[in-house]
Amino acid sequence: MAAALEGRSVVVTGASSGIGAETARALARAGASLTIGARREARLRTLAEELAAAGAPIAIQPTDMRQETDIARLFAVARERFGGVDALVNNAGLGRRAPLSSSPSEPWREMLEVNVLGLCIATREAIQDMERRGVAGHIVHVSSMAGHRIPGPDSGVYAATKFAVRALTEALRVELRARQSPIRVTAVSPGHVFSEFADVFNDRPGAAAEIDRRFKILESRDVAEAIAWVLTRPPHMEVHDLLVRPTAQRN
Q1: What are the residue boundaries of the structural domains of the chain, listed by start?
Q2: Using CA atoms, how far apart are residues 63 and 81, in angstroms rounded to an integer?
Q3: pLDDT computed for residue 208 by the predictor
Q4: Which end of the chain is more exposed for a tag (fewer CB within 10 A), N or C?
Q5: 3-state DSSP call for residue 144?
Q6: What is the domain class of 9-244 according to CATH?
Q7: Model pTM greater than 0.90?
Q8: SS3 for 90?
Q9: CA-CA distance, 115 to 90, in Å (whole number)?
Q10: 3-state class of 40 per DSSP?
Q11: Is the pLDDT of residue 199 over 50?
């Protein structure tokens, strides 16, 4: 895959840890120019220094996906540094244990604003940039197996956001085909991943490690390599919906 993305400008959201950070590493190895965003600026800077030391062209922009102005600035930085956006990895997202029957509203609002509305805004910004420049670009939504079934009794609203991502992925494909656009769209839906997600969802450090002790779960790098594979397929091939489970995961 060496240099398979050379000359291509890729924006990665939620890049300060986990799948986002590993995706940035995988795409840097493939030769991409990267614009990375996340709320935690110190982590972004540390990752940028690592990748720049390895020769990757990289820009950072602190980005809260609940703030439309932040998202717009992320894409402005990609235009300023690299001339525009050739691919977007919509990785930013989170889950909260927030039952529909009893949770306060704020966790629902946070998940909806980041996982759905923020994703929509970033997608729009990327598509408009690609179409202005006549680029056969690519949008990758990092979704979840929760977009294909309900994983548990406290995860309904989180799952609803990922079912929405699944619908938005197909809706965007239909929109693009209706106007004969060469832009492709993919959803990558991981199962259990060793990352901060499980700790945040359960509001308990070590939750991911507990799952991993029961059976071997995915590493963030596994999902990142799947994303890199998707982005390096030939132009006539659209991988639309990729489900990636740990081998031992039952549901």
Answers
A1: 9-244
A2: 17
A3: 64
A4: C
A5: coil
A6: alpha beta
A7: yes
A8: strand
A9: 9
A10: coil
A11: yes
